[in-house]
Design goal:
Blueprint lengths: L3 E7 L5 H13 L2 E7 L4 H7 L5 E4 L7 H13 L2 E5 L1 H8 L7 E2 L13 E5 L3 H6 L3 E4 L5 E2 L7 E6 L4 E5 L6 E4 L11 H11 L2
Parallel strand pairs: 1-2, 1-3, 3-4, 4-11
Antiparallel strand pairs: 5-8, 6-7, 6-9, 9-10, 10-11
Length: 199
Amino acid sequence: MLMSRILILIRKENSDLSNKKYIDAVERGGGSVVLIYDSYSIKMCHYYLKNVSGILLPGGDCVGVLDFFLIKYAIKHKLSLLGICQGMQSMALYGSNDKLLEIGNYNHKKEEGYVHSVELVDSKIINIYGRKEIMVNSHHLQTVAKSHNFLVVGKSSDGLIEAIESNNELFQIGVQWHPERMIDYDEKSLELFKTFIGQ
């Protein structure tokens, strides 16, 4: 079986270690990696998007033009899509003029490990995790008020949107937490990547 090729957007504000965790998670999930950088033009991105089966939008500091281009491309070409932290926020904001909102506290900006629970509704992601309440890490200071083109399928106990997904059969899922940092101690986080990659 050929390995699924996953395109990962590399953001300049992320450390080499952070970027390596995304790469390692995709490879451990059974995929091969194609990298593009947020300094690339959209024309350059078209070249790298050839023959990929999925797109990973990572965490970061601010939503960029490439985020929305890659989301649009994934929808149009029916590719798998995984948005993590800021990547999920980009998916939620896609198709709107909404902006990110400050949470106003540090309850969602913690060290590694399980930080809070997320309540899931019936969805593709609940089929992966196998339960309605899961524990996740948390590393963000911003949030979104609503999701415009993807269904909200998970929220934290304080009401923040934590998981969104498409309303079709495709794996197009956004999560507010960082499953790539959890794969060594949370088997369902690795299962999320395996399902994304199609293994």
